[in-house]
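Deliverable D4.2, example record:
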Amino acid sequence: MSKTEREHCQDIVEIGRIMWQKGWVAAQDGNISIRLDDDRILCTPTGVCKGLMKPEDLIVCDAAGTKIEGASGCTTEIAMHVAIYRLRPDVRSVLHAHPPFATGFAVAGRALNQALLPEAIMHLGTVPVAAYGLPGTAALTEPMLPLIPNHDALLMANHGAVAYGQDVYQAFFHMETVEHLAHVTLVAELLGGAKALPRAEVAKLLAARARYGIPTRAGLAPDVPLAAEDIPDPDVPF
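Output generated by the structure prediction step:
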């Protein structure tokens, strides 16, 4: 049974509150959208704390990102959402936030592209870094365009992360996996370095997606994460 527009509004408000409680956004940061149909996008307003939103605060835009309903302005980064929906017909929701660990990797210009955690490999494959673009302008979206078709989450250099999925909850779970992977990767590096899984184990995990019913495009060549054989051993001299 399809959800009503009011139910979609409540979902966005709930996800915004969880994002805020998790510390993924500060002040008025972040934005969330749901594609209602081919012609309408429900999205968060600009200048509102995502932890304090109400359903009536939300905005409806057309497929080009122009506001058609709502009292406030829509998110200034609506063009990013529009681009993802245009390039990914399977996507119904987009979520942008600044989770601290993932954003740390984005600021460092480091992709989350090693085969470290089975769940991240199966659900996301790799999480690349899109080059920096000025927020709220076309420059933000331009570097993301080549990456969107074959990834379900991206880091945005010196900015944050964006994740998307078949509904707002899957988009949220993708973002949660990104942040978890970034946190674990950082801890592993502090402990002497992360140890990637071997290529044969990565292949088994990718093959297991169908068995677990994981609907994702991530992991398609050339986006398979780096396995142990692909990463130089720092203890072995050249």
